[in-house]
Write a structure and sequence with these properties.
single chain, four-stranded antiparallel sheet, alpha+beta
């Protein structure tokens, strides 16, 4: 099983979309193993988005992401990094298909409501930035036998 980091951004939190986003991951069959509601510092966000530091929007993104609370989560499942990216849709909601989170719930690239790790390596790094080992819960959902062979 893979793990990925997913965060509902400040715009998604303000719009009350945390539950709707969680529901989509739960309905897909993924398992939530850690979650926290937190307002991160701008320094934390600069570290989180370090791979984008040379992009012109980096400073504004970090400032925005630290402007309000985010709902940070770790989800587990087979091929979850790839599948979560598909569920989220394109970074620009205008390019996202109906049925995706961004395609259904947002319209502006600067307010695209959700962050998800783009690679397994980045997922591991991001999870380590947001969660300590003792914050994870281990359990077997009763539906697991109906999701995986």
């Amino acid at each position: 099983m893979e793990r990925t980091f997913i965060a509902v951004k400040p715009d998604g939190v303000q719009r009350g979309l945390c539950g709707d986003i969680m529901k989509r991951f739960e309905q897909r069959g993924f398992r939530l193993v850690a979650a926290k509601f937190i307002q991160a510092s701008e320094e934390h966000m600069k570290n989180h988005y370090l791979d984008l530091k040379d992009m012109p929007f980096y400073g504004g993104l970090c400032k925005y992401m630290s402007s309000g609370p985010v709902f940070a989560m770790v989800w587990e499942g087979q091929s979850i990094v790839k599948l979560a990216r598909m569920m989220m849709g394109e970074t620009n909601p205008a390019d996202s298909k109906p049925g995706s989170i961004r395609g259904d719930l947002c319209v502006n690239i600067g307010r695209n409501i959700i962050h998800g790790s783009d690679t397994l390596e980045n997922a591991q790094r991001e999870i380590g930035l947001w969660f300590k080992a003792e914050e994870f819960v281990s359990y077997t959902p009763c539906a697991q036998a109906f999701l995986y062979e």
